[in-house]
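Notes from hallway chat w/ T.B., transcribed later so I don't forget. T.B. wanted the structure written out for a chain they're using in a teaching module, and asked if we could keep both sequence and structure tokens in one place. Agreed to drop them here.
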Amino acid sequence: MKYTIISTFFVIIFLFFCNTILVQSQSDKVLLTINGDPIYKREFERLYNKHIEESLNETKSPKEFLELFIDLKLKVKEAKALRFDTTTQFLHELNNYRKQLVIPYLFDKKEKTRLAKEAYERLKTEIHIKLILVRVDTYASAADSLIAYRKAMNIRRNIMSGVDFETVARRTSDDPSVSKNGGDWWYVSVFRLPYTLENYIYQAEKGTLSMPIRTENGYYIVRIMDKRPARGELKVAHIMISLPSNADSLQQYQAKQRIDTAYTKLRLGESFEELVKQYSNDKSTCENKGELPWLRTGYSAREFEKQAFALKNKGDFTKVFRTSWGWHIVRLIDRKAIYPYENIKQKLYSLVENDSRILISKHKTVNKLKKTYNYEDYRKLTEFYFVVDTTIFDGKWNIEKANDIDEVMFLLAGKSYTQQDFAAFLEQNQIRSRRMPIDIFVNQKYRNFVSERILAEEERHIETKNEEFRYLMQEFYDGILLFAIVDQQIWSKAENDSVGQYNHYKSFSDRFLNIPSYELAVFSYSDETALKELRKILKKKNLSPKEVEAKINKKKPNRCKLIEDGVFDTNSDLVQKNLTNIKKTQKKEIIELKTDKKLIFVANIFSPSPLPYQEVKWLVLADYQVELERKWNMKLRKKYDIKINKSVLSEIK
């Protein structure tokens, strides 16, 4: 187990990353040297600016932060001196990070930005559509595709001739949702449909009936019913009485009675949250005051959206209404418009990267890189139409079937890729998959093979071409080294040194003290006479609080009452409420609270004392780690020669 309680230095350095520069421009100034090796101003500034922007606590001056930065650089240098960067574990971990980090940097950034901005503009509009799907496989033969296209055209002619869209949809559509919606998808927005179909609906005019649109699912016929400005998002809560689809008449009657009762109580002013607890049987929300995730058009039942978006003011609630899920009462909590582009840019990038539209960016990148790396294609695919057979769809194709072919298929960056290279790619990447014509399969895999090799070539050069990625990889490079050496020198060393931990406790026992505490008694009194008598007894008699109470009340009952007594530390409510007064007292003193007719008797004061070792072992370990690091930092500063260019440091603000 590695402890997370570590020094301020390590928290700051790791959270805000660290060393980021592999290649420096000639104009960059040297901020400091360690054993003659230069460290540049720009590298430090990047890290310092992150500290300023992201620090949750008080920010440090450049001079203060430089001390932490130097400690980091010394640790990384020491890790390299001990050859941590040559271990198999380090190289494997760094390579895994690189594979994950490099992907976004390989694709055309301008195109990705264009797609993100396009998606943002489309977010502003909601489109009511009806659609019919004629399903045909992505890799269907030309003959099968033609049959599907003709079927789609016949459907379109029927609708154009006046046959009701829903009637045609229920009879012909392969869309699984048609049985519920009759082909009416209500209002949709960006990222809800295949990208080709999305492009059409945002370009077409209201009332248009499309020609068949080919997508990976088949041919779509789409009618544009309406377009409207996006309504933003709602935060709502609901009371829901769910009903199974096969509910009998008794179940339906009982559900309606239950929701009506809840609605009546709500109108009479009872708490919505309490009614959720009493009546709602929606398990996903009843423990959360009935609250649902933020609601957007197109992501819920149509009637639910209609009712929710009709609410005007926060706190308003709907009448009882029904959806396919059951009965509902919905209350509006909040609403928000679409955020500015800059606020959701990163989310849009992520959505684009995980959507089919990223293939556009990939395709443009590959085509551009073909020119960069002097790609020449000789194809030589015909032979594969004969040596590849249907065993490949079962994941059982063997490269030996291609032993007799080995011509060059393409050149890339001066290197030739042969038919044997492609055959090896086919064998290594085969999986069980649906069957398709061999020529279509081979052509698709060849495109993948070429793209993979081109992107691999770009990946080999990405550090020299992309400054941002270069910085990022250096951050991970140093971060992995830092973890490894701190684990060896601090974490594991401290954790396994039980003698060292105990000796640290003995040497610094004043760091592991209990908190101050007070022996107190709180009395209430009936009048001034009782107060005077109470003061006198507490000052002169050595009686317990109970004995004091009994003595005061001996002549006349209820003149004095002991409210509470005992030992209270500084975190207790009693001490916190009266902290200022209690801290100023000595033992055997009285604090009067005349407004409340009470007094507090401070019987004793207990100063902080060392806690038993067994109670604070984990604190001792954490503190021991900090102490080991402090000594290690001093040792490294003596080992390495550090020179700071103060004039360059003064330029950093």
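Follow-up for T.B.: The chain has 25 helices and 17 strands. Might be a good example for the class.
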